[in-house]
Amino acid sequence: MELRVLAVGDVVGDGGLRCLEQHLRSLKKLYRIDFCVVNGENAAMVGLTPNDAEDIFAAGADVITLGNHTFGKMQIRGYLDDCPYILRPANLGSRVPGRGYAVYDCGAARIAVMNLIGRCDLSFHASNPFTAADELLKAEEKPTFTLVDFHAEATSEKRAMGFYLDGRVTAVWGTHTHVQTADEQILPNGTGYLTDLG
Q1: DSSP letters of 125-166?
Q2: What residues act catalytically?
Q3: Are 17 and 56 in contact (CB under 8 A)?
Q4: For residue 59, which phi and psi values (nearest 5 degrees)?
């Protein structure tokens, strides 16, 4: 089964939102995109508001992922529990609002999206993202494709996650640095990998 996925890196501020609104739908049409994941944690510069989230969905995103600025705008807290299409890093723990993993229907495919946050050079008290990924992959439901947004600072940690999950997930991409790394590759066991979407 072929599935065309578009992953968009950190959308920043009003300019990023306007660019998404102007171009995302035409890009999806041009490349016949089936499923689109957008990292929106900087849509309000530091955080995401419910209005920003609605704008990102209206622009054509299927799922929004977050990162270290998940709670930069506190009005998102209740919205995270109510909206299954917004994912905060799963390894923030079970006591915070929202979820970090979900499975979505996309035609005949079932697509899992996992959002994790790194610990190297981020002053964030998250649990180990590698063991969190292991736990999430133990789910009884086996999706057709599994996509991972790893929101992390260090290239080494992102690369380690790619190799750690190689062959167990469909794709791993990094977000957070706002610098496109252009090192896309297929890892030895078949997982698509990119250090950072930019």
Answers
A1: -PPPHHHHHHHHTT-SS--SEEEEEEE-S-HHHHHHHHHHHB
A2: 69
A3: yes
A4: -75, -20
For residues 102-121, give the mean pLDDT: 96
Of the pLDDT bands very low, low, confident and very high (cuts 50, 70, 90), residue 122 is confident
Average pLDDT over residues 119-147: 92
Inter-residue contact 58 to 120 (CB < 8 Å): no
Give the whole-angstrom CA distance, residue 105 versus residue 11: 24
* Amino acid at position 98, single letter: G
What is the enclosing helix (H) or strand (E) of 27? helix 13-30
Cβ neighbours, 10 Å, residue 95: 5
Task: Find tokens 């590759």 and name the residue.
Answer: 185
Model pLDDT for residues 138-165, shown as the tens digit of each residue: 988 899 999 999 999 999 999 999 999 9
Q: Is there a contact between 108 and 132 (Cβ–Cβ < 8 Å)?
A: no
**Rounded to the nearest 10 degrees, how much is the dihedral formed by the CA atoms of 107, 191, 100, 143?**
40
- Nearest CA to 84 out of 98, 68, 66, 70 is that of 98
